[in-house]
Design goal:
The protein is an alpha/beta fold. Helix content is 42%, strand content 13%. The chain has a 6-stranded parallel beta sheet with strand order 2-1-3-4-5-6, with helices on both faces. Helix 9 links the parallel strand 5 (231-237) and strand 6 (262-268).
Amino acid sequence: MAKDYVLFLHGVNVRESEENEKTKNYTYANSLFKLITEIVQQKSPTRNCIKVPLYWGNVNRAALNELLVSLQGSSKWNQLWFQDFRKSQLLQFVGDAGLYISRLIGSMAADQLKEQAFKGLEEYEPEDRLHLVTHSWGTVILFDILFASRWDNQGIPGYSSVKAIRDRLYGIGENPTQGIRLASIQTMGSPIALFSLITISGRNANDESTFDISPGLENLLKNLVQGDKKLPWLNFIHPGDPIAWSLEKVINKLITGSERYVQVEDILTRGSGFWELIAQTPPIRQTFLALANGGSAHGSYWHNRELAQRIATNILTV
């Protein structure tokens, strides 16, 4: 019977313990995967779901720590407001994003993710299915590795790892008719909609945006989707998550003729803790005060049962 591989990729500010990193036992997705499999097993006891958690949180730790030491060494550091937010939220997000875009850190992440993906998918069969569940900046990283042309130069670091990853996915790579088939996409708290702006910058000699994911993603969908059946794409958004963006009306900017290939649905989620009760009230939710709940909202997807229910339904219906 065909197996369902559920591949997770986390976003910013996710760090495993040193022991987990040493043993390569990545647990950040355990709670969500458990919820998903419980629901799947209730409906289809013979269905076999396999967790493939990819992890890149340790790749740029040294660079971020070095930067933080320098920042805290300023004579004015102690006079700055919201220092904890600067260290735990802002620096992590901007730092993770900025460092990944750099060629060195990006290639290190690609090398590590390739090793993990190959291990997680080493026993896949041609009839098996792949379900992507990505969070925050993890969506950008995965789509960049799979589709961006900035990795096409054979002489750059990370080229071989990116090529190997692409060759494992049906619809792209040198042999697009080989590899595991993508069955569904789930994005959580994702800024991927903002990538519709990237086509205006970073162009190469062929007048193509080197960070643009659109051509590669469109080619995948053309090769993957047959007949009237569209690829399901669930985009989960917590209303209080400042990183999450709607995708339903933006997807056509990323993919020409997207309505022929993919069915995108924006889904609002809840459940970010006590402060949500305060932040969601009409006078407050449109003010900066609501941002106090932003971090909790951004991390709430990993424990949301209703979200797990929708992902499980996708797995069961493809």
